[in-house]
Amino acid sequence: MIRRMLCVVGVAAVxxxxxxxxxxxxxxxxxxxxxxxGVRYWVNDQIGLDGTLGxxxxxxxxxxxxxxxxxxxxxxxxHLRFVGLGGFGxxxxxxxxxxxxxxxxxITLGGGxxxxxxFAELPQLTFxxxxxxxxxxxxxxxxxxxxxxxTSNSATTFRTSPGFWLNVRYYVN
Length: 173
What we know:
Porin, 8-stranded antiparallel beta barrel, single chain, 66% strand, mainly beta
């Protein structure tokens, strides 16, 4: 799956040329995907800042994540931008069971590539597909019993993991 996405992104980069591209300087986009809701601000036509906030709450489960990314344009065409990404994220997940609570907190640094396509009929609306090529993270996870007796335990791990996500964004200005 990741190989296919990287092939699609690579082909898009080869096809993309700079003629007729939309100027993004000062534009603010609001949108999101499965990872949460986010805002992207283009500092100039080549560099953007992206922040995403995601959360989920249920009867016994909750999660939270926050990511901040730098976005830079590698190449572009009239309705397509091939971009590089780099940044960090922090997240927390917990699940309360009948005997105790399992939890994980993680901090991740990563980078990747992606494409953002704007529709000719509605250039403010974009669709993005992104893949992280390398993500380095540290996670602490554990279990805490509900009873007053027993011990909680935790473990810290380092990991690398690829990722893939889609989003839709609307530029308000």
